[in-house]
Amino acid sequence: MARPSRRYDAIINKACSDLQSFTDDKNVYLRIAHEMDLAETSRYPWATDDHEGFIGDYRYLIDNCRVTAPNVNHVWSPAGKENADLFY
User: How far apart are CA 66 and CA 70, in angstroms?
Assistant: First the structure.
């Protein structure tokens, strides 16, 4: 699988750093690209039939965020369609 573009790394790092700053006195949860298994709708631009591509991009984002924001919790949140397990 190809590595996702580094084009947005600075934005990812800034956003995660900002989230980390809130973790001193509260729990912070990042729910990104939720309901990715709803490809048949146009509700979310990240919803796709390309589950392998989604997994690669999601892991890239979360892995990078964990470096900058180790105290931020991550939420994997599919809609619950029968194909949701393909995105895990």
Answer: 5
